[in-house]
């Protein structure tokens, strides 16, 4: 088995190979990221293969969703995607070579025979495996024209060891692996064969995937060994099986933990792609105590030696915290372009962009940004929340009327000048600033929460701000 260091004598080639039967779930997104980073770190190639051989479950909608999610995460690939379904002839070609060389055989066992075999194994509490009944029989013993599958002859004695780049040395007794099917009765290849042939033909040097595939590695190696014997250039890849992601409670990740498609974190949770990428990077890989790691730094630092052997725990609150950090660092125009469709109404994109420095200081996701900006684009008369309306009694409206006159006399429409004017009036009225500022916020935004009230006045501008104040000051109590 090749070691990780040995494989570096060749150009590193990784592949991400999703099955398009649904969205790109969070574990798949991390696998894609780890493969991409490893290739970029070593100056190699990152490839994409769509494993769409399950014709009943694979859909174009799922393919589009996976490609969209990968693009959103900024994971680009060095060649056009390979579609496994288009390579069935090549897979069958390899199966026939294995058959001709005696490394595979035709199996004529009927479905009824298989069910009887399994029933006997269950009754005797034996492992559920094909018993090799056609392994050494001559096909001429089968009825003429009988359907058959092609099974691989796997080793029956000894052990196979893999020096996994994450798990370390893992050993399995060969007797635990049965002669599995590589070609179905209709001539179509199985996943186990197709994956090996595609990895070989794509020049894949490192297979980085979830540790739920570890058993597959022991089933796939005999194909490499047999084809190496036949053709001489089938070198197995370095395997790196990454522990799965669990929920915050330590249980297997599910929808209740936030096991959603990558696009759902964007669309439903308002997560930025760089935040999700950073969070996924830190799920199972670490570099000291660093939490924020840029894409450029990740490429420089990432290696398989930093991947842990224990499952990681997904924590939505930690992701949101990290997302808030990235929102505060993000370009204002970019944030405005993300938030604009969420607000939905006609808007001034320049105004929304100018508002971002104020809005993004407290937002944890883009939905909160959009909600915080909504007041800028409301039409008069403003719809009031129940709490906001309760602040606007007759006394508050009278104070707003006085404040409006003072603000109209203000020549310098800046935060400092507006704050000084408002504080001065509050002192005259012998009110705490909040007693004046809260009704003012209600009048300007229709809510009781907003950015700083003087930021709101400046963002709305003199004309709109005074019009909103006057509208509430004149309203009946």
UniProtKB/TrEMBL annotation:
This enzyme's EC code(s): 6.1.1.17
Origin organism lineage: Bacteria, Pseudomonadati, Pseudomonadota, Alphaproteobacteria, Sphingomonadales
Purpose of the protein: Catalyzes the attachment of glutamate to tRNA(Glu) in a two-step reaction: glutamate is first activated by ATP to form Glu-AMP and then transferred to the acceptor end of tRNA(Glu).
Subcellular location: Cytoplasm
Keyword Repeat assigned: no
Binding site for ATP: 255
Record field: catalytic activity: tRNA(Glu) + L-glutamate + ATP = L-glutamyl-tRNA(Glu) + AMP + diphosphate
Single GO biological process annotation from the record: glutamyl-tRNA aminoacylation
Residue ranges annotated for the Glutamyl/glutaminyl-tRNA synthetase class Ib catalytic domain, each copy included: 11-320
Keyword Cell inner membrane in record: no
Pfam families from the UniProt entry: Anticodon_2, tRNA-synt_1c
Listed GO CC annotations: cytosol
Gene Ontology molecular function: any one: tRNA binding
The species this protein was found in: Altererythrobacter rubellus
Subunit structure: Monomer.
Name of the protein: Glutamate--tRNA ligase
Main localisation: cytoplasm
């Amino acid at each position: 088995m090749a070691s990780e260091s040995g494989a570096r004598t060749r150009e590193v080639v990784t592949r991400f190979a999703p099955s398009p039967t649904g969205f790109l779930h969070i574990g798949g997104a991390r696998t894609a990221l780890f493969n991409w980073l490893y290739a970029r770190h070593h100056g190699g190639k990152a490839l994409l293969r769509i494993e769409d051989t399950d014709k009943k479950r694979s859909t174009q909608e799922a393919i589009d969703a996976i490609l969209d999610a990968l693009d959103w995460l900024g994971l680009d690939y060095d060649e056009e995607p390979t579609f496994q379904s288009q390579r069935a002839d090549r897979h069958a070609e390899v199966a026939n070579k294995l058959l001709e060389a005696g490394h595979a055989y035709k199996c004529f066992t009927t479905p009824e025979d298989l069910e009887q075999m399994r029933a006997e194994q269950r009754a005797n509490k034996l492992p559920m495996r094909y018993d090799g009944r056609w392994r050494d029989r001559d096909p001429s013993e089968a009825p003429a024209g009988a359907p058959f599958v092609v099974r691989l002859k796997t080793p029956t004695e000894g052990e196979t060891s893999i020096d996994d780049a994450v798990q370390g040395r893992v050993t399995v007794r060969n007797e635990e692996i049965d002669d599995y099917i590589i070609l179905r009765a209709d001539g179509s290849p199985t996943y186990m064969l197709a994956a090996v042939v595609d990895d070989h033909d794509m020049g894949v040097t490192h297979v980085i995937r979830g540790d739920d595939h570890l058993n597959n590695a022991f089933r796939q190696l005999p194909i490499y060994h047999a084809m190496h014997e036949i053709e001489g250039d089938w070198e197995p890849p370095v395997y790196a099986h990454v522990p799965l992601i669990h929920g915050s409670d330590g249980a297997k990740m599910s929808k209740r933990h936030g096991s959603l498609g990558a696009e759902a974190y964007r669309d439903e949770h308002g997560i930025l792609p760089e935040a999700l990428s950073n969070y996924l990077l830190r799920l199972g890989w670490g570099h000291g105590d660093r939490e924020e790691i840029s894409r450029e730094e990740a490429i420089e630092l990432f290696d398989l030696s930093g991947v842990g052997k224990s499952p990681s725990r997904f924590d939505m609150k930690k992701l949101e915290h990290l997302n808030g950090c990235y929102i505060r660092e993000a370009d204002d125009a970019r944030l405005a372009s993300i938030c604009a469709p969420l607000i939905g109404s006609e808007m001034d994109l320049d105004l929304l962009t100018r508002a971002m420095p104020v809005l993004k200081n407290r937002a944890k996701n883009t939905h909160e940004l959009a909600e915080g900006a909504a007041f800028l684009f409301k039409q008069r008369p403003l719809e009031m929340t129940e709490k906001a309306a309760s602040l606007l009694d007759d006394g508050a409206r009278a104070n707003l009327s006085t404040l409006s006159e003072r603000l109209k006399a203000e020549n310098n429409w800046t935060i400092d000048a507006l704050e000084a004017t408002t504080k001065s009036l509050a002192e005259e009225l012998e009110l705490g600033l909040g007693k004046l500022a809260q009704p003012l916020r209600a009048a300007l935004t229709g809510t009781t929460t907003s950015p700083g009230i003087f930021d709101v006045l400046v963002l709305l501008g003199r004309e709109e701000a005074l019009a909103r104040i006057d509208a509430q000051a004149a309203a009946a109590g």
